Structure formats: structure tokens, C-alpha cells
Please model this.
Amino acid sequence: MPGVEQVEGGVYSRTAMTEGRAGVVRIDPRDRPATGRARLVLGLDQDHAEIDRALGSDPLLAPLVEALPRLRVAGAWDGFELAVRAVLGQQVSVAAGRGLAERLALRHGEPLPRPAGGLERLFPTPEALAAAEITGMPAARARALGALAAAVADGLVIDERQDLGSARAALLELPGIGPWTVEYVAMRALRDPDAFPAGDLVLRNALGGISAPALLARAEAWRPWRAYAAMHLWTAAVPVNP
Model:
């Protein structure tokens, strides 16, 4: 998201509030040992050898695991930000969702006192978005963002410490947030290794265009690592540039 985060030379940098100050944090995957939120952002909170063994036993996933061993589910620096971006990405291309997020940050994010290169502003806070008139997108999506922001400002927490069932239920109660968005948030912010957005069109097409219920039935063999199976299928469909 331009202005908020960037990757240069394999290092992820982003704006954030740390110890009460607005600034820039940098996460280098080559650093050892990674600690704190860096471990979550890099997806280091699971036994990847065990995951590879489990998923590699499935004939469909075996070649994908062999091609990309230790594939991670990236975490999120902030659960609210991740949820906002998931809503913005509903039924649009990745590029379109990124553009919406960039404009949202430009209009409602607090500028850094000292910009660093292309990093110049914080992602909007829940309080800021709850009070804002959100424009530049369909009205239903703007209402969904406002409701999400208001819920988080009122105490809803979206991170790995939450009870998975309660967090899913709270998110599903919000307007404009359905099962796909909840499962994507569960994968990356709630850190549920078994989260699985069965309605995802790319995942369904990966198995010949089957229905969501049929995909769920097929994915039973991937428990409790369905989030990692989804990552393999997504990456095979849309390879990520190194």
C-alpha cells in the first residue's frame, strides 16, 4: 500500500505507532531471531516441516509443496487494517483493492511527522474511519467499513489472542462482511491455521470449478492446515514474483 508500506531489497517496511510514537518499522526476513509482531507478519508461528509432511501426502498438493516448501501464511501487523483491506478487496482485482486502500489512507490517515522515503502516513485508525465520510467506492462498501471501524473503536479486537468462534461470530454480524471475508481475516489476523474460504473462486477453479460445499468436503483431508493448502493453491494459480 503506497505511503503506508513497501518492500525494497527483500525488507518489508511500514508506518506504525510504536511506544506511542508514529514512525517506521522494518522487518527483514533474514534477521535471526525474529521476535514479537515480526514473527506474526512473517508467518513463523507454526511448524512448517509438519505442515509440509501433512499436505504433501495429498496427491493434489504434493507437487505444490515440493515446488514451494515451507510456504507461509503471512500474518498482519494490525488486525483492523487487515480486515479493512479484506473488505476493500471483495469482488475486485488485487490492483483495484490496493488502489482503494491507498486512497483511504491518503484521505484519512495521519501524516508522519518525519516521512521516510515513500512512507508518509499511518493507516487510518478505527476512530478516524468511524467518524469519516467514506467516499470513492460503492455506498454499501463504505457502510461496511464504517460499521467495522465503529465496532473496533467500541472494543472489538481482531488479533491472534481472540477466541476463534467468538471473533468469527462478531465479524459475521457486521454488514457487508460474509464468510469469505471472515475466513481470510481468520487466516491472517486471527492466525487460524485451519481457516478456509471455501467460496473463493480461485480455490474452486483449482479443483475444476466445483461448488463450495464440494470444496469443503475435499478440504477435510487438509485439516488442520487448510489455510496453508489455500495458500498453495492461490500461489499456484497466481505466482508471486520473488
User: Anything to note?
Assistant: The chain has twelve helices and five strands. The beta strands are 5-8, 11-18, 21-27, 111-116, 119-121.
